[in-house]
Amino acid sequence: MTLQTLRDVASLRDAVAGWRAAGESVALVPTMGALHAGHLALVARALVLADRVVTSIFVNPTQFAPTEDLARYPRDEAGDAALLDAAGCDVLYAPTVAEMYPPGFCTAITPAGPALGLEADFRPTMFGGVALVCTKLFTQCGPDVAVFGEKDFQQVQVVRQVVADLDLPLRIDTVPTVREADGLAMSSRNRYLSPAQRALAPALFQVLRAVADGTPAAEAPAMLLAAGFDSVDYVAVRDGVVLGAARLGGVRLIDNLAC
Known about the structure:
alpha/beta, Pantoate--beta-alanine Ligase, Chain: A,domain 2, 10 helices
């Protein structure tokens, strides 16, 4: 089947209704595009879990602060569509901002619990935006399951909490972080890295692995700075997972590992 590209809620719901009428299950893979092998691993998992797969591409403005990279966030819909078609995805759902947030839109979600601390201390607008856009995508598509990557560990916990708290009728499944050969977690923002920064970037994974192996987390920021990072937002252990965020120039990298 050739990939369909849909841009409005009504068309998406019509497609899903047809699948439901045929007794088929549906999986959703929410993304912001600029797809890489990590995203394709989510699609592959979705194809195992459901008969039909929708991958959404939407660079969500509500999760970006005014100082962040909304305008320059990498976009390549044509390239993404080719990858999704080759991967066996059924529908690319690529709504416009006006479709997602039409004039007069004024509803917000304010998550707490897992949305507090760590990422929220440095990106305080993010998780409210993530909770809002995911809730909209879930209600627009009505999937049986949505698939996320474990690289965004805290985000996954926030989404799970929203689904539970709002009684949304789907389950959340995750896929382990997909890494480059040198350990760097795959991310759309990696394409911002200069060659020199790219050579330094795997140190985040290496330092988090050292903490997972027993190095005190308090020593990690100095280790990252010594490795060439310009600043460290945090390295912390929560519930058996070591999480870190650090910057190389204007590029902010995050990662996590089980302890």
